[in-house]
Structures are given as structure tokens and as C-alpha cells.
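Service request form, structural biology core

Requester: graduate student, group of Dr. S.
Request type: structure prediction, single chain
Budget code: on file
Notes: please return the result as C-alpha cells.

Sequence provided:
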Amino acid sequence: MDIFDSLKVSSSALKAQRIRLNTISSNIANVETTRTPEGGPYQKKEVVFRSSETPFGQRLEQSLNRQVQGVEVAAIQANPSPPKMVYNPSHPDADEEGNVAMPNVDILEEMVDMTSATRAYEANATVIKAVKRMALKALEIGR
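Core staff response, request fulfilled:
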């Protein structure tokens, strides 16, 4: 694996983690949203990752040359878990029994996911800095 492969993998991971952080931020921002344009409460969004798609010929060549692939976001999908029901008869979206359907977002879980995504982002940024330092040291050898 050469220096440019390391940069490709880390840069694709930076992009994927940025999208993950944006999705988590959206979940946190909508933790109290009980009415959406689609109807009902906000549904938690989750990011699905996959390795970068490449055509078969390129994949075969990568396997033969032991090249690595990056990561990309395959989808951002809604979490299918049911909404949380909270008793609040004075809420405008309460049903006839006084229950309000709240988003299926757990703020504690979102904060843990945000910390994990931040650490992954920082790790990939550190890899890019290390690759940059190695490239500069390699150029200094020729002086």
C-alpha cells in the first residue's frame, strides 16, 4: 500500500464520518419533534456504510495488487422502532387518551454515537497528518 492509498482510505472515511455526524445532529435537533410533513413524530435516521463500489475489473485488479478500498455511505435510513408514548394531555398532538407519540431518539445513545463518530474522524485526520509528515521526511532524504 502506498501513501496515496492511505490518503484515499482516510479521506473517504472522513467524508463518511462527516455525514454520520450530520445525521446524528439532525436526530438530536429533532428529539422533541412530534409532527413532520410525512405525518407522525420524527423518526431517527441511521447511516449505513459499505466499502466503495468498484466495477468487477477494477476489483479484480485491486485484489491482485492488494490495494485497499475506502468507505462510503450506502444509505441514510429511518429507524423502524416505534415512537415513545408519553402521557401529556395538554400537548396539541395528544391523542384522546392524552398520550403523545414522541420521536424514537434516545439522546444518550445519540451522544455516544456522536463521540464515536468524532473519535473516528479524529483518527482519520491523524492518519492524514502522519502520511503528510512521512512524505515530507521522504522528500528531505533527497536533499
